[in-house]
Design a protein that fits this description.
Four copies of one chain form a homotetramer. The relative contact order of chain A is 0.23. The first copy, chain A, is built from three helices and seven strands. Chain A has one domain: Hotdog Thioesterase (Thiol Ester Dehydrase, Chain A, Roll). The model of chain A has no long low-confidence stretch (mean pLDDT about 95). At the A-D interface, helix 1 and strand 3 of A face helix 1 and strand 3 of D. Strand 3 of chain A pairs antiparallel with strand 3 of chain D, so a sheet runs across the interface.
Amino acid sequence: MSEPRRVTIQYRVPYADTDQMGVVYYANYLAYFERSRNELIRETGVTYKELEAKGYALPVAEAHLSYHAPATYDDLLDLTSWVEGLKGVRLTIHCEVKRGDKVLVSGHTVHAIVDIKTLRPVRHTEEIRHLLSCD
Amino acid sequence: MSEPRRVTIQYRVPYADTDQMGVVYYANYLAYFERSRNELIRETGVTYKELEAKGYALPVAEAHLSYHAPATYDDLLDLTSWVEGLKGVRLTIHCEVKRGDKVLVSGHTVHAIVDIKTLRPVRHTEEIRHLLSCD
Amino acid sequence: MSEPRRVTIQYRVPYADTDQMGVVYYANYLAYFERSRNELIRETGVTYKELEAKGYALPVAEAHLSYHAPATYDDLLDLTSWVEGLKGVRLTIHCEVKRGDKVLVSGHTVHAIVDIKTLRPVRHTEEIRHLLSCD
Amino acid sequence: MSEPRRVTIQYRVPYADTDQMGVVYYANYLAYFERSRNELIRETGVTYKELEAKGYALPVAEAHLSYHAPATYDDLLDLTSWVEGLKGVRLTIHCEVKRGDKVLVSGHTVHAIVDIKTLRPVRHTEEIRHLLSCD
């Protein structure tokens, strides 16, 4: 894996996401990470929905977030993700939430690659590596 | 059905539920209604989870809310529900959100009674009427 | 008010919005309504954020939803809103959630037009009528 | 600080918190952490609301979560928090989400101790140390 593909989507912050401090509530960034991941995966040519249909799932094993500055209501954010690593059955995806040039929140999630029925790690990850364009 | 059973639970408002107006975001009351409904059903002697295991589901067909006054962070609310009506395969549940004596939000949800597999209305609702103690 | 302006935005459903029935959880549609209202207001030439800066707020007094069919993960929905009525200090906004030609959820919210500091109804609504292009 | 005070509350999982995998959506655990923190702080004799009234805020600088096993609908969870460290103006709170003896999710949040008006780190943290019973 040389330079990982980066995918960016825009997201408009609704009132729903804010809290009484007047900023986006901290848990919502994990939903932003998910929105961003979905589009990263879609860009590889297969959607997460299709991955599930093929019998895979990518449950989250870890999540790590650093909050640098708050996003606020009606901000038009850039959500950018890229694959940071894929070792065995562990996939790490990095995500950045930006307003203009300013990184507001950054972090990464670690996913297990499992069989959607048994929830056990898949043995051979060639297909999923290929699907996620990690080769 | 004479006087319907009323069930009340307490709920502490987290920061998560507030928005930048400093009050509970309006969509969250539908989750409060659900929490309250769950306990109403539990009190009948069968949980909603058990209803699902028996092959039923109660998808929401309508929801109606009146917002009288806002709930705020750290309020300890009373969530009260009761069955307002059961006609054929339509179940109506009323819910009230109170802080002390003050009704903050009131409303009702209308549920279809369906087979959880086919999502089609169930024919004979005797069992569910009995389960929900509506007789 | 002749034919009201209709504004439509697209919205991609994340996993975050689904529940264990495999469909969008019923409360989330109120957040969809809000996203749609925000864009309706923006299209009038003033954003809700600017309305607040001018000293107005539009707190929700009522919400009514009809659930016709479920939205599911990764659906690309159309969220459409229009002003249904403005009488005195009560503004009614209708919203429709569609997937292709199919209306999944429809409903309306009733808003009070208030002074953002006192939260009391504003006396003269000419400016806000004008701002919302309701004349 | 010898043995930190641990505070546990119970929490019933609503449908609202689940996703289409049939488990609690990963972002919601950060709201669980918040519910648990609120009660930890309350137990020290001052609520977070009172801390804010005294001019302090504890914005989140980092969050770290490990997902061991999923929580599901209607689970009655134990949410336990304790202060893991307080160095200068950085407060670390650990949180565990358990179902019976099984730890489902664990993690910690790092908070800055700031002036609620300026959002700048407070100089003298004696009062807040005392308020949080960290001495």
